[in-house]
Amino acid sequence: MPVHPLPMNATDHRASPVAVTPHLLALGTYAFLAVVLTWPLATSLTTGVIGAVGGVDAYQNAWNLWWVTRALVTLNDPFFSPLLFYPEGIDLFWQTLGFSQGVLALPVTLALGPVAAVNWIVLTSFIVGGYATFLLARRLAGNNAAALVAGATFVCSPYHMEKVIDGNLELAALHWIPWYAYALHLLMEQPSWRRVLLAGALLLWTSLGSWYYGLFGVLYTGCVAVIWAAGARLDAPGGDVRRSGVQFAWGIAPLLIWAAALAPRLGGLAAGRGDAIWDMRAVQVERSADLLDFFLPSPVHPWWGPLVRAWRDQAYPDAVIWNVALGWVALLLGITGAIVARRATWRWTLLLLACLVLALGPQLKVAGQDTGIPLPFTLLQDMPGIRSGQRPNHMAVMASLALAVLAAYGVGVLQQAIAHRGGDAREHRVARIHRLPSRVFARGAQWVAPAFLIAAIVALDAYAGQHTLVMRPAHPFYATLPPPDGAIMPLPLYININRSENLTAQTAHGWPIVGGYVARPPAYPFARYTPGVREIQSGEVERDDVIAPGWPELARQALAAYRIRYVTLDRASDKEEYFARVRPLLVELGVGPPVVADERLEAYLVPRTWSVAPLACLGDGWQAIERQPEAGARWRWMGERAEVRLYNPFTRPAPLRLTLSLGAYERMRPLTLALDGAEIGVFEGAPGRAPARALRLLLPPGEHELTLMAPATPDPARAGAPISVRLFALDVHAGASAP
């Protein structure tokens, strides 16, 4: 006898308490699971977060939510922040900003702060994501109880729990994926332009929450369009190709909305801007799933998780971010649904397989062995955007959603089997014993198996033990600062280092900071070349450089011109050896004693009496300083080009005179000078030390680059490195200008 999922009750579509009950039950169930699986997070919503490695990612995401709220409330662009990497700011569009999560958490951020907002997003990832999956599975399988289990399989997957544990909020926030899948299913079920707009908007919203999930949503859309188009042809009399083509066109239509909204940004990617320096194809193989990864028992379970991780570390010693396990209970239910209800589920089975194949990356790996067999991802990895993604294996999140749908059918199959085995007569007898109406008892009995299955999902697939919360309170000093009128230089700067402590402090004081932490850090030459900033961040000084004025006068000028108002030392960072080198430099600069000094923080106020004037410093392209002590000479060589960085801190043009003492390598060489790319003159450089040449500029406000260019010759003494001109001295004199 064929087994089919139990249908929903006829009253489910009526405006009655019965119709509302399944939805309330679903929301309540997922809320309960959220609290249980993140315990004790609910007891410390405003004080601590779940986050591995000292909460680095979790507190970075706290900053993200704080910044989105701040930008929206003040009507500023949330995708650009002037508060990080001062004075340049940072474009956050392609960063892990999590804009959609920021909007969802905005009321919580305003009322309770960014830590509570992080925890709100973690908890709602279970509730909102589970409920959307429930709605999708309910529409497909026609069974409330089975849909309830489907939602649990999706949000309780080992993959999701891993992201929660890591504090990786961008990926833990899988809220929007099932909503988009639901909208796309509605479109494929009954195409219309209204549904295209809805699906396209949700795909865009998913992308703004996580670019990984947006990318996977695009790939998922392509798979759906192909599979459903094939189904349309099979369903049509005679295999109508036209009907298949129409279905495919409707399937990919949301991509047009998505692409139109992102056209300016996508155009930059296609032109090689934005992700050109983040070509991740070299690591995509090692960050692709191994075939066995999908079938492993939960690696986060406190009992057998350590054994799973130890085995995998031995089999794949170089693998990172590899947990894409689908969950054993989910797999059992999904396989049952795929086999027994195959006529209803074959599209979703193919979709599951397609997503898993894409998660395997460019070539097949099995049990740690690279088979060398190329996979379909190879055809995609050179595309803009995809080439900058480093985690093909995370496509498993889309497979997990397809598996949840199949699991709903599997639960329905089990319910039907139980109902047939028990028989109506038995139900009536038991109901009479308990003096219950048979209809009420039958309806209640339908929920026994789903309740047991959800308990099994929690116990086997999702449970990760009691979590340790990371608490990182900001120092009280930051709350006492006046409104920003410059920037803070927090030490250590942690440039290109995965540390987010400076972001946490910024959520308390709101000042722009030198440096910052983002997933894809910019080049940021300011910290590398700016006098004062350069020496303080390194703890080292070149006391006899070729530029005059030198240390410490030039450093004072730069700190004053750029309005660096405070220098803070995070003593909780365990960098006392470094701080021991920094403190004498602050004394040499003339910075007074700390205004705050305790076991957690030292804070120094930079004097505001230092003079402000246009300044110049050496930039990129200059080699290390060389000296000839007996002749009292020192110099720096350049290759084909080198830079002098200029800065006018005033609001009007200011006069600046640069006097350069130069010497060419071996022979006469023309030295071309360009200001911001526009040629302004040519000097003839002679061998030896030529007479000094003066360059007078009326420098516009802001930062500028003076580029020196000369033909270079390989130098055998430098292993063939090309050199052209050496700079003996650069004297800088700034004229007076009103601010």
Walk me through what this model shows.
There is one protein chain. With about 750 residues, the chain is an alpha+beta fold. The chain has three domains: about 10-460, no CATH class; about 475-605, no CATH class; about 615-735, Jelly Rolls (Sandwich). It is elongated. The N and C termini lie far apart (about 90 Å).
Task: List the domain count as a whole number.
Answer: 3
Mean pLDDT: 89
The class by helix and strand makeup works out as alpha+beta
Helix content: 40-55%
- Mind summarizing the main beta sheet? 6 strands, mixed
Quick one: overall form? elongated
Please report the distance between the alpha carbons of the first and last residues.
89 Å
Task: Note poorly predicted spans.
Answer: 1-15
What percent strand?
15-25%
